[in-house]
Amino acid sequence: MERTPEPDGTTGRRVRRRSPLARQDVLDTALRLIDDEGVDALTMRRLGKELDRDPMRLYRFAESKEQLLDAVVELVLAELDVPAVVDGDWEAVLRRSAHAFRRLTLAHPHLVPLLVTRPLATPLGLRPLGTLRPLEAMLELFIGAGFDARGALHAYRLYMGFLQGHVLNELQERVHDPEETDDLLRLGLHRLPPREFPRLRSLAAELAAYDGGQELDEGLDAVIGGLRRQRDRHRTDGAAACG
Question: How many whole angstroms separate alpha carbon 223 and alpha carbon 162?
């Protein structure tokens, strides 16, 4: 049965219009793909399929996969908020920020290698602004705590280097088979030749009992204690030079 033409010459058939695609939709979907299946699963073709769009249309949001990965890293780092220092307690802020960073990486474990390496692949001034805001906030924190500008930069590098190393190590410490009761088997250490790796095999129980949060706190004690001593020594040296 034919449709009766409308006065404007159409047949009266309704055309279903899709809502415009937003950049946030693209990045959220890209992040979900990485979280579910890993970085290798993210391609423009696969992303287009997930969004029910022609992959070529996605290039207006990112000119390449590399640019898309940078944008996803920026999206995740935007969740990392460096709180304001209260009553001069900058050490407490460093501890809270460290645990916030750990929670963020545990929520997006497949993205951790990118969080560590992607910013380094681009000159500082050309990086997405969102990846630089934690750096700016941390420099402000250290300078407010009494570090000079150079000392603040050194403190940031030491602090973030420790944090990144910690989360990478924690992800590697995950047990191979959580259902297995024997620690050697849980960690796959039974595959190691006993004569070549006696120390490592002997630490099976300790390795299996790994507590990422506790390890982070113990490491922060050492890092923050060292930074405090460094700041105080520079203050003393500066005062002596002025005297």
Answer: 8
pLDDT above 50 (res 113): yes
The gap from C-alpha 32 to its chain's centroid, in whole angstroms, comes to: 14
Q: How confident is the model at residue 110 (pLDDT cuts 50, 70, 90)?
A: very high
Which tokens in the block code for residue 164?
Answer: 């990144």
Name the strand (E) or helix (H) holding 74: helix 65-77
Residue by residue, DSSP assigns 192-214 as S-TTT-HHHHHTHHHHHT--HHH
CA distance 163 to 157: 10
Task: Name the fold adopted by 81-173+210-242.
Answer: Tetracycline Repressor; domain 2 (1.10.357)
Residues of the chain with CATH 1.10.357.10: 81-173+210-242
**Residue whose pair of structure tokens reads 């070549």 in the numeric block:** 196
CA-wise closest residue to 72 among 37, 100, 114: 114
Which segments of the chain belong to CATH 1.10.10.60? 23-75
Asked if residue 219 lies in contact with residue 162, where contact means CB atoms within 8 angstroms, the answer is yes
Q: What is the pLDDT of residue 209?
A: 64
pLDDT (mean) for 74-86: 87
Indicate the CATH number for domain 23-75.
Answer: 1.10.10.60
Task: Tell me the C-alpha to C-alpha distance, in Å, between residue 189 and each of 38, 172, 177, 202.
Answer: 25, 13, 11, 10
**DSSP designation for 33:** H
Instruction: For residue 153, report the phi and psi dihedrals to the nearest 5 degrees.
Output: -65, -40
Which one-letter amino acid corresponds to residue 219? G
Question: What's the whole-number mean pLDDT along residues 168-189?
Answer: 63
